[in-house]
Amino acid sequence: MKKVIWITGGGTGIGKAVAIEFANQGWNVAISGRRENILKEVEDNYPNIKAYPLDVNDKEKCFDVTKAIKKDFGDLDICFFSTGTWDPKKEREIDVEQIEKVFKVNFFGTLNCIKSVEDHFRNKRDGIITIVSSIAGYKGLPNSTGYGPSKAALNNLAESLYFDFGRYGVRVCLVSPGFIKTPMTDKNNFKMPFLKTPEYSANQIYDGLINKKSFEIHFPKQLTLILKFLKIIPDRLYFYLVGKLTKLQKK
Ligand SMILES: NC(=O)c1ccc[n+]([C@@H]2O[C@H](COP(=O)([O-])OP(=O)(O)OC[C@H]3O[C@@H](n4cnc5c(N)ncnc54)[C@H](OP(=O)(O)O)[C@@H]3O)[C@@H](O)[C@H]2O)c1
Fold first, then answer.
1. Distance, CA of 218 to CA of 223 (rounded, Å)
2. Distance 229 CA to ligand 1 centre (A)
3. 195 within some domain
4. Could you list the residue range(s) of the whole structural domain that residue 174 is in?
5. CATH assignment of the domain containing 125
6. Which of 47, 75, 116, 205 could crosslink 62 through cysteines, CB 3.0-4.6 Å?
């Protein structure tokens, strides 16, 4: 029987590229997102991709979609939770309502999806739950009052669940992309170092999920290794270097 992957955010960007990569590798692929027309377009081009429209903030619907995928395909082997929102213009201030919205999609939306597959994976005692985070979650960055903190929370959640699901033989995997050219980053008006394509990211993700066993899949290494180094240096040096690199102006 063909293996099955469920991808949220599967109608655009990284999620769509991962959907196509797995479909090309012979998997059955379920894709979710809010915009049905976009999902349908992907579905129409690949016989083994099927659309399951979903707003990840709708807890009940997350359970309905999980049930429908299992009914249609007979099983669920990998989840790839890739929904996310980022609005650079709104990240410069402490706009509490906006930050709540960001957390609602990035953190709680992902959590709703994980909750909906919890029993399935505990009973299956196999499979992978993938959480798409970001390098922005490693350490605090300037002008990132909602997005970075929401991704930092996801990183911590992924580590926590790694232990909890690990006891049942289920792998929890964290994906930390650098800059990838998608509708999300098309809004950025700054130079994005080592910008890569969604297809490049899909390739890295497929390899990391299927051929490797590590907890975190991060790319491109030219950028992520620098950021990992910045994570372990003393705070004073971190603030100095990142301030310089991002040309932070003192008020
Ligand atoms: N691109 C990068 O450089 C980069 C870097 C680091 C991390 N990431 C992370 O990678 C993931 C994918 O981002 P992307 O770059 O591929 O951007 P994207 O193309 O904008 O993808 C975001 C996806 O999330 C879906 N989505 C948003 N809100 C949703 C909701 N309430 N319910 C269901 N689906 C929802 C969107 O579809 P609908 O609008 O149709 O719902 C869209 O397909 C995100 O978690 C992002 O934070 C991206």
1. 9
2. 27
3. yes
4. 4-245
5. 3.40.50.720
6. 116
- The pLDDT confidence band at residue 63, using thresholds 50, 70 and 90, is very high
Nearest to 133 by CA among 192, 193, 173, 99: 173
Residues 178-213: tens digit of each pLDDT: 999 999 999 998 889 999 999 999 999 999 999 999
Give how far the C-alpha of residue 182 lies from the chain's centroid of Cα atoms, to the nearest Å. Answer: 13
How far apart, in Å, are the Cα atoms of 19 and each of 49, 191, 213?
Answer: 8, 28, 20
pTM exceeds cut of 0.85:
yes
In 46-179, which ranges are continuous DSSP H helix?
A: 59-73, 96-103, 110-124, 147-166
**From the DSSP assignment, how many helices (H) and strands (E) are in the chain?**
9, 7
Q: How far apart, in whole angstroms, are the C-alpha atoms of residue 154 and residue 148? A: 10
Going by CA atoms, what residue is nearest to atom 23 of ligand 1? Answer: 9
Distance from Cα 191 to the centre of ligand 1, integer Å: 20
CB of 54 closer than 6 angstroms to any ligand 1 atom: yes
Number of domains the chain is built from: 1
